[in-house]
Amino acid sequence: MSLRIDAVILAGGQARRMGGQDKGLVELIGKPMIEHAIDRIRPQVKEILINANRNQSRYALYSDTVFGDDDSGFLGPLAGMVAAMGKTQADLLLVVPCDCPCLPTDLVPRLKAAMDAADADVAVASDGEYEQPVVMLLKPSLRDSMKAFLDAGERKIDFWYAKHKVAVESFADQPNAFVNVNTPEQVEQLTQALTQ
Ligand SMILES: Nc1nc2c(ncn2[C@@H]2O[C@H](COP(=O)(O)OP(=O)(O)OP(=O)(O)O)[C@@H](O)[C@H]2O)c(=O)[nH]1
Ligand SMILES: [Mg+2]
């Protein structure tokens, strides 16, 4: 029996650097950023879940499973992950943000291979230099651990996964894979880079 792997796209932040717009719905070369993330991830997983705290009816165009954080206080990405781990039926859950439109097309197989090789509970992507803590593959059974961490007032994802057996997979071979679009200027820059 093969493992089931789902993905959650995190689109639940306030996007303050984007002027408070809903970042997943901000357009980049003719389509909302969430569509870029979906295009990258769709072939790699069974189901895509979307975590959003606003505009849920628009996000429902892309997924049958759209949900907000359990706490309305914008506690950060961990809140979206905890909610997602409670929704998925999968054996493994890929977490990605809505603001990385150029994610690797081989993200899941490589994270899974790294996880298996190290017998790890969490596999985190790296760009070769920095870990990308909102890009990881994890076991949904870790929900209680993450919820306890969040409930204790902790917010930093890397501190959470440091408590578990972690594998890090480098995507240094794809230097632009984790380009992160947080501001209108970065939308402009990436538009220029992609249309040159
Ligand atoms: N569910 C959920 N996701 C969040 C929350 N805060 C940030 N995220 C998500 O985490 C990812 C990375 O966060 P940022 O790039 O800092 O996004 P952000 O917090 O919306 O943006 P800024 O307000 O400009 O920092 C994005 O996919 C966000 O949607 C939150 O409170 N809840
Ligand atoms: Mg960001």
From TrEMBL:
Arranged from A to Z, the UniProt key words for this protein are: Cytoplasm, GTP-binding, Magnesium, Metal-binding, Molybdenum cofactor biosynthesis, Nucleotide-binding, Nucleotidyltransferase, Transferase
Q: In what residue span(s) does the MobA-like NTP transferase domain sit?
A: 7-157
Catalytic activity, per the record? Answer: Mo-molybdopterin + GTP + H(+) = Mo-molybdopterin guanine dinucleotide + diphosphate
The residues listed in the UniProt record as binding Mg(2+), with positions renumbered to this chain, are: 99
Q: Which InterPro entries match?
A: MobA-like_NTP_Trfase, Molybde_CF_guanTrfase, Nucleotide-diphossugar_trans
Q: Which cofactor does it need?
A: Mg(2+)
What is the protein's major site of localization?
cytoplasm
For GTP, which residues are the binding ones?
Answer: 10-12, 23, 51, 69, 99
Assembly and oligomerization = Monomer.
What is the protein name for this chain? Molybdenum cofactor guanylyltransferase
Q: What is the lineage of its organism?
A: Bacteria, Pseudomonadati, Pseudomonadota, Gammaproteobacteria, Alteromonadales
